[in-house]
């Protein structure tokens, strides 16, 4: 059986093709701009991926050249944009179609703002540390990652030297095996009879062993040595964006029936049409 590419290889080939078709595509233009700005200010007080790539280029010139620098930066943008957008969309939709979840989530935002010391600027964005102390909202994020994984296909791995026994079957080395998060995440043995329902409370269950098991087997970011390198950034983006979005706007879904999923390598949704009304900033302090 031919070997399937890793996501990293897939994205690199995709980026190369994209650059060929659209040599000055938005992503490439943007990443080149970031690289140039890093080159102008190499001693950033806030090192990011590009800073690390530049350090790697200086340290390992035989592995990392100019072209790879650009490719890696592009890969990060490709790998981190649609995936994050899918989970953001899923969060907005599920919170809106579950009025009880909406009420509990907004109550956590209110409590977070009210808990701020008097002298702290009310208008400051909700911080990562504050978002982490919103248990129901964190459960909503985990549930969206479970219920609607961004990747819709198998994530391939090669069986290593010596082969491996999986579920009583011996697979010889070099065999390509893989799991699909959509299958794992709907496993009733693991998530219970209601695995097909969106129910954030499963992550707040008193049975800590069961919650740990679900967390360990969560496959939304893949697993093992090729686990998504942007996982922590993604969790930060999801936490900060969604809290600010609902804090600043009253959000109303135009028509839940418009929501559709397009299965593929990425399971992209359409139909999340909403009406936005800016919220009175004081209303959340009452
Ligand atoms: C909610 C958002 C995200 C989801 C659901 C997601 C999901 C995934 C998955 C499933 C993989 C495959 C892992 C595997 O093969 O086991 C992956 C790999 C990767 N992700 Fe993410 N990702 C997200 C955000 C990001 C962000 C923000 C970045 C960059 C800043 C990023 C960069 C990458 C890269 C570079 C890889 C390839 C890693 C490798 O092959 O070693 N991802 N991601």
From TrEMBL:
A Gene Ontology molecular function term for this protein is:
monooxygenase activity
- Residues in the signal sequence: none
Q: Does the keyword Transport apply?
A: no
What is the top-level taxon of the source organism?
Eukaryota
Q: Which residues of the sequence carry a binding annotation for heme?
A: 228
SUPFAM superfamilies from the UniProt entry = Cytochrome P450 (SSF48264)
Sorted UniProt keywords: Heme, Iron, Metal-binding, Monooxygenase, Oxidoreductase
Instruction: Tell me which cofactor or cofactors this protein depends on.
Output: heme
Task: Tell whether Iron is among the UniProt keywords.
Answer: yes
PROSITE patterns the UniProt entry points to: CYTOCHROME_P450
Q: Which family does it belong to?
A: Belongs to the cytochrome P450 family.
User: What is the protein's name according to its record?
Assistant: Pisatin demethylase
């Amino acid at each position: 059986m031919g070997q399937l590419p890793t996501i990293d290889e897939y994205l690199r080939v995709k980026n190369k093709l994209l650059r060929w078709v659209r040599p000055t595509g938005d992503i490439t233009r943007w990443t080149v701009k970031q690289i140039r700005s890093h080159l102008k200010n190499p001693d950033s007080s806030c090192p990011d991926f590009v800073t690390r790539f530049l350090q790697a280029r200086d340290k390992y010139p035989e592995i990392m050249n100019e072209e790879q620098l650009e490719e890696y930066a592009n890969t990060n943008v490709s790998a981190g944009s649609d995936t994050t957008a899918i989970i953001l969309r899923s969060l907005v939709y599920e919170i809106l179609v579950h009025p009880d979840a909406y009420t509990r989530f907004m109550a956590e935002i209110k409590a977070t703002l009210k808990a701020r010391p008097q002298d702290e600027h009310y208008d400051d964005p909700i911080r990562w540390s504050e978002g982490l102390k919103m248990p129901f909202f964190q459960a909503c994020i985990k549930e969206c990652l479970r219920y609607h994984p961004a990747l819709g296909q198998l994530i391939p791995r090669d069986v290593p030297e010596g082969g491996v026994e999986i579920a009583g079957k011996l697979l010889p080395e070099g065999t390509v095996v893989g799991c699909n998060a959509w299958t794992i995440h709907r496993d009733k043995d693991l998530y219970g009879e209601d695995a097909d329902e969106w129910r954030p409370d499963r992550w707040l269950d008193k049975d800590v062993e069961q919650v740990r098991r679900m967390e360990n087997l969560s496959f939304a970011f893949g697993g093992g040595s090729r686990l998504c390198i942007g996982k922590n950034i993604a969790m930060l983006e999801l936490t900060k964006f969604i809290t600010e979005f609902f804090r600043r706007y009253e959000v109303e879904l135009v028509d839940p029936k418009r929501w559709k999923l397009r299965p593929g390598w990425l399971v992209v949704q359409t139909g999340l049409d909403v009406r936005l009304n800016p919220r009175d900033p004081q209303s959340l302090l009452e």
